[in-house]
Specification:
Number of domains: 3
Radius of gyration: 21 Å
CATH class of the largest domain: Alpha Beta
Order of helices and strands: HEHEHEEEHHEEHEEHEHEHEHEH
Number of helices: 11
Bound molecules: iron/sulfur cluster
Helix content: 25-40%
CATH architecture of the largest domain: 3-Layer(aba) Sandwich
Strand content: 15-25%
CATH topology of the largest domain: Rossmann fold
Oligomer: single chain
Strand order of the largest sheet: 6-5-7-8-9
CATH superfamily of the largest domain: Diphthamide synthesis DPH1/DPH2 domain 3
Number of strands: 13
Protein backbone atom coordinates (compact mmCIF):
# COMPACT_ATOMS: atom_id res chain seq x y z
CA UNK A 1 0.00 0.00 0.00
CA UNK A 2 2.70 2.49 0.97
CA UNK A 3 4.47 2.16 -2.39
CA UNK A 4 1.33 3.38 -4.12
CA UNK A 5 0.77 6.36 -1.86
CA UNK A 6 4.16 8.01 -2.32
CA UNK A 7 5.40 7.73 1.22
CA UNK A 8 8.48 9.93 0.53
CA UNK A 9 6.28 12.84 -0.54
CA UNK A 10 4.28 12.63 2.69
CA UNK A 11 7.45 12.57 4.80
CA UNK A 12 8.73 15.62 2.88
CA UNK A 13 5.46 17.49 3.52
CA UNK A 14 5.57 16.57 7.23
CA UNK A 15 9.14 17.88 7.53
CA UNK A 16 8.25 21.10 5.71
CA UNK A 17 5.42 21.60 8.22
CA UNK A 18 7.84 20.84 11.06
CA UNK A 19 5.51 18.13 12.36
CA UNK A 20 6.64 16.11 15.38
CA UNK A 21 3.46 14.23 16.29
CA UNK A 22 1.52 12.68 13.47
CA UNK A 23 -2.00 11.26 13.58
CA UNK A 24 -3.05 8.45 11.28
CA UNK A 25 -6.64 7.87 10.22
CA UNK A 26 -7.58 4.88 8.11
CA UNK A 27 -10.96 3.55 6.95
CA UNK A 28 -12.04 0.48 8.90
CA UNK A 29 -11.19 -1.85 6.01
CA UNK A 30 -7.56 -0.69 6.05
CA UNK A 31 -7.03 -0.42 9.82
CA UNK A 32 -5.12 -3.72 9.76
CA UNK A 33 -2.35 -1.75 7.96
CA UNK A 34 -1.92 0.79 10.77
CA UNK A 35 1.06 -0.95 12.38
CA UNK A 36 2.97 -1.08 9.09
CA UNK A 37 2.21 2.59 8.40
CA UNK A 38 3.07 3.72 11.95
CA UNK A 39 6.44 1.95 11.72
CA UNK A 40 7.27 3.80 8.48
CA UNK A 41 6.65 7.18 10.04
CA UNK A 42 8.42 6.30 13.28
CA UNK A 43 11.50 5.29 11.30
CA UNK A 44 11.67 8.94 10.17
CA UNK A 45 11.54 10.23 13.76
CA UNK A 46 7.83 11.11 14.03
CA UNK A 47 5.71 10.16 17.01
CA UNK A 48 2.53 8.46 15.78
CA UNK A 49 -0.99 8.32 17.22
CA UNK A 50 -3.51 6.10 15.43
CA UNK A 51 -7.20 7.01 15.31
CA UNK A 52 -9.21 4.12 16.72
CA UNK A 53 -12.55 5.69 15.85
CA UNK A 54 -14.63 4.51 12.92
CA UNK A 55 -13.85 6.26 9.64
CA UNK A 56 -16.48 6.39 6.91
CA UNK A 57 -14.83 8.63 4.35
CA UNK A 58 -13.39 12.10 3.86
CA UNK A 59 -16.59 13.32 5.51
CA UNK A 60 -15.26 11.84 8.74
CA UNK A 61 -12.15 13.63 10.02
CA UNK A 62 -11.15 12.68 13.60
CA UNK A 63 -11.41 16.21 15.02
CA UNK A 64 -10.52 15.07 18.56
CA UNK A 65 -7.27 13.50 17.40
CA UNK A 66 -6.58 16.54 15.22
CA UNK A 67 -6.36 18.64 18.41
CA UNK A 68 -3.62 16.36 19.79
CA UNK A 69 -1.30 16.09 16.79
CA UNK A 70 0.64 18.47 14.53
CA UNK A 71 -0.62 16.83 11.35
CA UNK A 72 -3.34 14.26 10.74
CA UNK A 73 -2.83 11.99 7.74
CA UNK A 74 -6.18 10.81 6.41
CA UNK A 75 -5.80 7.80 4.12
CA UNK A 76 -7.82 6.51 1.18
CA UNK A 77 -10.09 9.45 0.39
CA UNK A 78 -9.96 12.68 -1.59
CA UNK A 79 -10.71 15.81 0.46
CA UNK A 80 -14.20 17.12 1.05
CA UNK A 81 -12.99 19.83 3.43
CA UNK A 82 -9.61 21.55 3.42
CA UNK A 83 -8.08 21.59 6.91
CA UNK A 84 -4.72 23.28 7.34
CA UNK A 85 -3.34 20.36 9.39
CA UNK A 86 -4.76 17.43 7.45
CA UNK A 87 -2.91 15.67 4.64
CA UNK A 88 -5.18 13.50 2.49
CA UNK A 89 -3.65 10.46 0.89
CA UNK A 90 -6.10 9.03 -1.64
CA UNK A 91 -5.80 5.41 -2.67
CA UNK A 92 -5.96 4.89 -6.43
CA UNK A 93 -6.27 1.51 -8.13
CA UNK A 94 -4.28 0.91 -11.34
CA UNK A 95 -6.28 -0.81 -14.09
CA UNK A 96 -5.92 -2.02 -17.63
CA UNK A 97 -7.55 0.04 -20.39
CA UNK A 98 -7.40 -2.88 -22.81
CA UNK A 99 -10.57 -4.38 -21.29
CA UNK A 100 -12.55 -1.26 -22.23
CA UNK A 101 -11.94 -1.94 -25.90
CA UNK A 102 -14.26 -4.95 -25.71
CA UNK A 103 -17.25 -3.69 -23.70
CA UNK A 104 -20.51 -4.10 -25.64
CA UNK A 105 -22.69 -1.03 -25.15
CA UNK A 106 -25.35 -0.26 -27.73
CA UNK A 107 -25.95 3.39 -26.77
CA UNK A 108 -23.52 5.71 -28.51
CA UNK A 109 -23.37 8.51 -25.96
CA UNK A 110 -22.21 7.74 -22.44
CA UNK A 111 -21.75 9.60 -19.17
CA UNK A 112 -18.64 8.27 -17.47
CA UNK A 113 -18.52 7.92 -13.68
CA UNK A 114 -16.36 6.09 -11.13
CA UNK A 115 -15.71 5.74 -7.44
CA UNK A 116 -12.66 7.59 -6.09
CA UNK A 117 -10.22 4.66 -6.50
CA UNK A 118 -10.88 4.52 -10.25
CA UNK A 119 -11.82 8.11 -11.18
CA UNK A 120 -8.17 9.23 -11.55
CA UNK A 121 -7.95 7.39 -14.89
CA UNK A 122 -11.25 8.45 -16.46
CA UNK A 123 -9.63 10.81 -19.00
CA UNK A 124 -7.82 7.76 -20.41
CA UNK A 125 -11.02 5.69 -20.32
CA UNK A 126 -12.78 8.50 -22.20
CA UNK A 127 -10.10 8.51 -24.90
CA UNK A 128 -10.38 4.75 -25.40
CA UNK A 129 -14.17 4.94 -25.70
CA UNK A 130 -13.99 7.91 -28.09
CA UNK A 131 -11.59 5.97 -30.30
CA UNK A 132 -14.36 3.34 -30.49
CA UNK A 133 -16.82 5.98 -31.72
CA UNK A 134 -18.68 6.79 -28.48
CA UNK A 135 -19.53 10.34 -27.46
CA UNK A 136 -18.37 10.58 -23.86
CA UNK A 137 -19.51 13.01 -21.18
CA UNK A 138 -17.05 13.46 -18.30
CA UNK A 139 -18.21 16.22 -16.00
CA UNK A 140 -17.19 17.51 -12.58
CA UNK A 141 -19.77 17.47 -9.79
CA UNK A 142 -20.32 19.72 -6.76
CA UNK A 143 -17.51 20.82 -4.41
CA UNK A 144 -17.85 17.61 -2.38
CA UNK A 145 -16.25 15.61 -5.22
CA UNK A 146 -12.83 16.51 -6.54
CA UNK A 147 -12.28 14.59 -9.78
CA UNK A 148 -14.23 14.66 -13.05
CA UNK A 149 -16.62 11.73 -13.12
CA UNK A 150 -16.22 10.97 -9.43
CA UNK A 151 -19.32 9.86 -7.53
CA UNK A 152 -19.74 9.29 -3.82
CA UNK A 153 -22.39 7.22 -2.13
CA UNK A 154 -23.89 10.55 -1.11
CA UNK A 155 -23.25 12.54 -4.25
CA UNK A 156 -24.18 11.97 -7.91
CA UNK A 157 -23.97 15.62 -9.00
CA UNK A 158 -21.65 14.72 -11.92
CA UNK A 159 -24.76 13.32 -13.55
CA UNK A 160 -26.89 16.39 -13.04
CA UNK A 161 -28.42 17.50 -16.38
CA UNK A 162 -26.56 14.73 -18.21
CA UNK A 163 -27.36 14.62 -21.92
CA UNK A 164 -25.90 11.14 -22.41
CA UNK A 165 -28.13 8.22 -23.39
CA UNK A 166 -26.61 5.87 -20.81
CA UNK A 167 -24.12 5.82 -17.93
CA UNK A 168 -20.97 3.72 -17.58
CA UNK A 169 -19.72 3.23 -14.02
CA UNK A 170 -16.18 1.99 -13.41
CA UNK A 171 -15.69 0.43 -9.99
CA UNK A 172 -16.60 -2.31 -7.57
CA UNK A 173 -19.93 -3.10 -5.96
CA UNK A 174 -23.45 -2.24 -7.01
CA UNK A 175 -24.28 0.61 -4.70
CA UNK A 176 -22.97 3.52 -6.80
CA UNK A 177 -24.43 2.31 -10.13
CA UNK A 178 -27.80 1.64 -8.48
CA UNK A 179 -27.70 5.20 -7.15
CA UNK A 180 -26.77 6.47 -10.63
CA UNK A 181 -29.73 4.65 -12.19
CA UNK A 182 -32.21 6.03 -9.69
CA UNK A 183 -30.63 9.49 -10.01
CA UNK A 184 -30.82 9.60 -13.82
CA UNK A 185 -33.53 7.09 -14.73
CA UNK A 186 -31.19 5.98 -17.57
CA UNK A 187 -29.64 2.67 -18.44
CA UNK A 188 -26.52 2.17 -16.29
CA UNK A 189 -23.67 -0.26 -17.02
CA UNK A 190 -21.08 -1.31 -14.46
CA UNK A 191 -17.57 -2.47 -15.29
CA UNK A 192 -15.33 -3.72 -12.50
CA UNK A 193 -11.67 -3.65 -13.60
CA UNK A 194 -10.65 -5.96 -10.74
CA UNK A 195 -12.90 -8.93 -11.46
CA UNK A 196 -13.61 -7.92 -15.11
CA UNK A 197 -17.36 -8.06 -14.50
CA UNK A 198 -19.58 -6.14 -16.90
CA UNK A 199 -23.35 -5.89 -16.47
CA UNK A 200 -26.40 -3.71 -16.87
CA UNK A 201 -27.59 -2.62 -13.44
CA UNK A 202 -31.11 -3.31 -12.16
CA UNK A 203 -32.77 -1.44 -9.30
CA UNK A 204 -36.03 -3.36 -8.74
CA UNK A 205 -34.81 -5.43 -5.76
CA UNK A 206 -33.24 -2.39 -4.16
CA UNK A 207 -36.49 -0.41 -4.46
CA UNK A 208 -38.56 -3.33 -3.12
CA UNK A 209 -36.37 -3.48 -0.01
CA UNK A 210 -36.74 0.26 0.50
CA UNK A 211 -40.55 0.03 0.11
CA UNK A 212 -40.67 -2.74 2.68
CA UNK A 213 -38.75 -0.58 5.18
CA UNK A 214 -41.12 2.35 4.66
CA UNK A 215 -44.22 0.11 5.06
CA UNK A 216 -42.87 -1.33 8.32
CA UNK A 217 -42.08 2.15 9.63
CA UNK A 218 -45.63 3.28 8.80
CA UNK A 219 -46.95 0.75 11.33
CA UNK A 220 -44.85 2.15 14.19
CA UNK A 221 -46.16 4.74 16.69
CA UNK A 222 -42.98 6.63 17.32
CA UNK A 223 -39.75 7.27 15.43
CA UNK A 224 -36.57 9.31 15.82
CA UNK A 225 -34.49 11.38 13.43
CA UNK A 226 -30.76 10.71 13.79
CA UNK A 227 -28.16 13.46 13.40
CA UNK A 228 -24.48 12.57 13.22
CA UNK A 229 -21.75 14.67 14.86
CA UNK A 230 -19.35 13.81 12.03
CA UNK A 231 -18.16 16.94 10.28
CA UNK A 232 -19.23 15.94 6.77
CA UNK A 233 -22.44 14.14 7.73
CA UNK A 234 -24.05 16.56 10.17
CA UNK A 235 -27.44 17.76 8.84
CA UNK A 236 -29.15 19.19 11.89
CA UNK A 237 -31.21 21.76 9.98
CA UNK A 238 -32.58 18.98 7.72
CA UNK A 239 -33.50 16.97 10.83
CA UNK A 240 -35.29 19.94 12.38
CA UNK A 241 -37.15 20.63 9.14
CA UNK A 242 -38.29 16.99 8.96
CA UNK A 243 -39.45 17.14 12.57
CA UNK A 244 -41.47 20.25 11.79
CA UNK A 245 -43.07 18.48 8.81
CA UNK A 246 -43.88 15.48 11.01
CA UNK A 247 -45.42 17.72 13.70
CA UNK A 248 -47.64 19.34 11.07
CA UNK A 249 -49.20 15.98 10.15
CA UNK A 250 -49.40 14.82 13.77
CA UNK A 251 -46.58 12.27 13.57
CA UNK A 252 -44.50 12.00 16.75
CA UNK A 253 -40.69 11.98 16.19
CA UNK A 254 -37.72 12.94 18.37
CA UNK A 255 -34.31 14.19 17.21
CA UNK A 256 -31.24 12.32 18.48
CA UNK A 257 -27.69 13.68 18.14
CA UNK A 258 -24.94 11.02 18.24
CA UNK A 259 -21.38 10.26 17.16
CA UNK A 260 -21.79 6.85 15.50
CA UNK A 261 -25.00 5.42 14.09
CA UNK A 262 -24.73 1.73 14.93
CA UNK A 263 -27.22 -0.86 16.27
CA UNK A 264 -25.29 -0.85 19.60
CA UNK A 265 -25.66 2.93 20.04
CA UNK A 266 -29.40 2.67 19.43
CA UNK A 267 -29.98 -0.44 21.51
CA UNK A 268 -31.25 1.46 24.58
CA UNK A 269 -33.90 3.38 22.66
CA UNK A 270 -37.37 2.01 21.96
CA UNK A 271 -38.33 3.69 18.70
CA UNK A 272 -40.19 1.81 16.00
CA UNK A 273 -38.07 3.31 13.19
CA UNK A 274 -35.30 5.83 12.56
CA UNK A 275 -34.71 8.49 9.95
CA UNK A 276 -31.01 8.71 9.14
CA UNK A 277 -29.70 12.15 8.14
CA UNK A 278 -26.03 11.01 8.29
CA UNK A 279 -24.22 8.96 5.62
CA UNK A 280 -26.97 7.63 3.29
CA UNK A 281 -25.16 4.29 3.03
CA UNK A 282 -26.15 3.52 6.64
CA UNK A 283 -29.77 3.32 5.46
CA UNK A 284 -29.05 1.63 2.13
CA UNK A 285 -26.24 -0.81 2.99
CA UNK A 286 -26.46 -1.45 6.72
CA UNK A 287 -30.24 -1.60 7.15
CA UNK A 288 -30.22 -5.34 7.89
CA UNK A 289 -28.07 -4.77 10.97
CA UNK A 290 -30.76 -2.66 12.64
CA UNK A 291 -33.76 -4.16 14.43
CA UNK A 292 -36.15 -1.52 13.08
CA UNK A 293 -36.38 0.30 9.73
CA UNK A 294 -33.82 3.01 9.10
CA UNK A 295 -35.16 5.39 6.47
CA UNK A 296 -33.61 8.14 4.39
CA UNK A 297 -35.06 11.69 4.62
CA UNK A 298 -36.81 11.19 1.26
CA UNK A 299 -38.37 7.93 2.44
CA UNK A 300 -39.58 9.70 5.58
CA UNK A 301 -41.27 12.25 3.30
CA UNK A 302 -43.07 9.31 1.64
CA UNK A 303 -44.12 8.04 5.09
CA UNK A 304 -45.49 11.50 5.92
CA UNK A 305 -47.40 11.63 2.63
CA UNK A 306 -45.32 14.54 1.33
CA UNK A 307 -43.73 12.63 -1.55
CA UNK A 308 -44.96 9.85 -3.87
CA UNK A 309 -43.02 6.67 -4.74
CA UNK A 310 -42.84 7.91 -8.33
CA UNK A 311 -40.71 10.79 -7.02
CA UNK A 312 -38.32 8.45 -5.15
CA UNK A 313 -34.82 10.01 -4.94
CA UNK A 314 -31.49 8.91 -3.61
CA UNK A 315 -30.40 10.78 -0.51
CA UNK A 316 -27.54 13.16 -1.33
CA UNK A 317 -25.25 15.40 0.65
CA UNK A 318 -24.25 18.18 -1.72
S1 LIG B 1 -21.35 10.58 3.77
FE1 LIG B 1 -21.06 8.41 3.33
S2 LIG B 1 -21.07 8.26 1.10
FE2 LIG B 1 -20.73 10.42 1.64
S3 LIG B 1 -18.50 10.69 1.68
FE3 LIG B 1 -19.17 10.17 3.76
S4 LIG B 1 -18.94 7.95 3.88
FE4 LIG B 1 -18.94 8.48 1.70
Amino acid sequence: MLNRIKFDEIVKALKEKNAKIVGIQLPDGLKYKCDEIAKCFESHGFKVIISGSGCYGACDIDLDLLKEVDILIHFAHTPIFEFENVIYVPYFVEYDLEDLKHLKIEEKSLALIASVQYAWKLEDVKRVLEERGYRVELKKGSGRVKMPGQVLGCNYTVLRDSKAEAVLFIGDGLFHPIGAKIYTGKKVYRFSPLDKEFEEVEVEDFLKRRMLSVSKAMEADKGAILVSKKVGQKRLSLALRLKEEADKVGKRVDVIYLDEITPEKLSNFLYGYYVNTACPRISYDDFELFKVPILTPQEFEILLGLRSWEKYEMDEII
